[in-house]
Amino acid sequence: MPDAPLRDLAAARGLLIGTAVGPHWLDQEPAYAATLAREFNCLVAENCMKFMYLEPERGRFDFATADRLAAFAREHDMRLRGHTLVWHVQLPEWFRAREWSRAEALQVMETHITQVARHFRGQVFAWDVVNEGLADDGAWRRDSPWFKAVGEDYIEQAFRLAHAADPDAQLFYNDYGMELGAAKADACYRMLAGFLARGVPVHGVGFQFHLGAENRLDPATLVPNLRRFRDLGLAVHVTELDMGIKKPITDELRRQQAEEYATRIRICREAGVAAILFWGFTDKYSWIPSFTKGEYDEPLLFDREYRPKPAHAAICAALT
Ligand code: G3I
Questions:
Q1: Which residues does residue 81 pair with via DSSP β-bridges, in sequence order?
Q2: What number is the average pLDDT over the span 255-275?
Q3: Which of 31, 147, 239, 257 could form a disulfide with 213 if both were Cys (CB 3.0 to 4.6 A apart)?
Q4: Ligand 1 pocket, 47 CB below 6 A?
Q5: Residue 1 clears pLDDT 70, i.e. is over it
Q6: CA distance 276 to 227
C-alpha cells in the first residue's frame, strides 16, 4: 500500500499528528511548506514562540514570526500548540543579565504570560506552560533562574497566570526523559496530582520522546506510565518525538528506526495519547546532528529531499 498522508490516517482516528516548524522555511522552500501542509494537522513552533524571540526587550513584544506560523496553521486547517511560556533556556539577554527578586521575577512572568497567551487566544489550543522544570532524578531543576528567583511555586504560579490570560487553552507541563526514568516520571505525576488536588489549572502532560533509535521502548512499562496521567483526568501529548540513528548509518539501522517508530506510535495509541508531534519532519533541518556533535543523524520521517523514509511507511501502518 502506498504511504498515505499522515494527517488523513490520524484524523480518521481522532488523533492530532504534528511537527515542530521553523517559519522562515515556509517561504524559502516550497517543498517544506507543501510537505507540512499535506502531512500534518497540528503545528508547534520549534523556536519562535520562546521568551527570547517574543519579548526581546523587557515589555516589547514581537509577534511577527509566530503570527506567520499561526496564519499557516489557519490556512491549512491545522491546530497550533504553543511552546513555551516558561523555560530556563532561550531567555532574553535582558533577563539573563541580572538577578531578580521573587516579586520582580513574578512580575516579569505575569507580563510575559499575560501578553503572549492573550495574543494567541483562540489560536493556540494548548500551551506548554512550563518546560523542563524537573531535574533527571525528579528533584526541582535548581539551576532555572525562575526557580532561583521565585522558588518551587513558580510552576503553579505560571499555570494560574496562563489560565487567567486564556481560560480556554489546555495547559500542559512538558518534559523529557520521563519515557525511561521512573524517578522523573513519578515526580511529575506527584507534582501534577498535587496541582489538581489544590485546584491549580493544569490540563495535560507532554512527554517529549527525544531518544535515539537504539532505545527500544517497552510498551509493558510505558503504556501504564502514560495511562496513569490520563487516569488523573489529564490529556497526554507526545510533544517532541524524534529518533537519531547512531553513525555510521546503514539501511538495516534505517529499518530498525522505522520499526521503533511504529512501536512508539502503537504505544501512544494504546495509552490514549491525544496528540503526537515530531520535532521536525525533514532530516534537512533537525537539532540532532549539531546537538550530538555529528554522532547521530537522520532522525525524522522525510529525507533531505523530502522523500518519505521507511519510518513514514511504518508510521502509516501503525496508524492504520
Ligand atoms: O538565532 C540564532 C542565529 O541568529 C544564529 O545565527 C544561529 C547560529 O548558531 O543560532 C541561532 O540560534 C539557535 C536557535 O536554536 C534558533 O535556531 C541556537 O544557536 C540553538 O541553540 C537553538 O537550538 C534550539 C534549542 O531548543 C535550544 O535549546 C533548537 O533549535 C530546538 O530544536 C530546541 O528545542 C528544544 C525544545 O524547545 C525543548 N525540548 C528540547 C528541544 C531540543 O533541545
A1: 44, 126
A2: 98
A3: 257
A4: yes
A5: no
A6: 15
